[in-house]
Amino acid sequence: xxxxxxxxxxxxxxxxxxxxxxxxxxxxxxxxxxxxxxxxxxxxxxxxxxxxxxxxxxxxxxxxxxxxxxxxxxxxxxxxxxxxxxxxxxxxxxxxxxxxxxxxxxxxxxxxxxxxxxxxxxxxxxxxxxxxxxxxxxxxxxxxxxxxxxxxxxxxxxxxxxxxxxxxxxxxxxxxxxxxxxxxxxxxxxxxxxxxxxxxxxxxxxxxxxxxx
Length: 213
Fold this sequence. Notes:
The protein has strands at residues 19-31, 35-55, 59-80, 85-99, 119-127, 133-142, 145-149, 152-156, 159-172, 177-185, 193-195, 198-199, 204-212. With 213 residues, it is an all-beta fold. Strands 1-2-3-4-5-6-9-10-13 form a nine-stranded antiparallel beta sheet, with no helix packed on it. Strands 7-8 form a two-stranded antiparallel ribbon. The protein has a two-stranded antiparallel ribbon with strand order 11-12. A hairpin with a 2-residue loop joins strand 11 (193-195) and strand 12. It starts with 18 loop residues before the first strand and ends with a strand. The relative contact order is 0.12. The model has no long low-confidence stretch (mean pLDDT 87).
């Protein structure tokens, strides 16, 4: 990370740490021992919010936005199913307002934060028959995000990731435990970017051993 200095002719001459106040209010309801539902609302008031953009031929510029307010809500739930399965999911809906963005002085982004998804969701199916075996299939959705490409407002598309994991403890002794690990990420081989200009890996399969003591 770096930022442009006074000699470059750009706006940023210093980078300040963020200062934030965070407010949350939540509610959780259990339905016996097999299900639960939680609802949470949040509000963040951030001064000197640290943002970044990419300048063609220069690189990444990191800078402060004077004032940012983020507010939203989350809904999550989990249900225990027969045969040692459990189903879980969560949904996030959020908004953000900004004031004093030196990169977007014309407010082309309509007060929206760069690379800020307004909708995110996760869901998964876990399988845990005993203490030795754990496996799961999960889905991650991130909605579209606006960002400034130079001085032009542009959009990063939404994406869906499907991931699989499994661990099995094949040896457990008084001196330590051995686990075999397996994971397959981005099963749909999606082309996506967390930030503009940084493409993420396609289908990735990994395996390994873990010793813990």
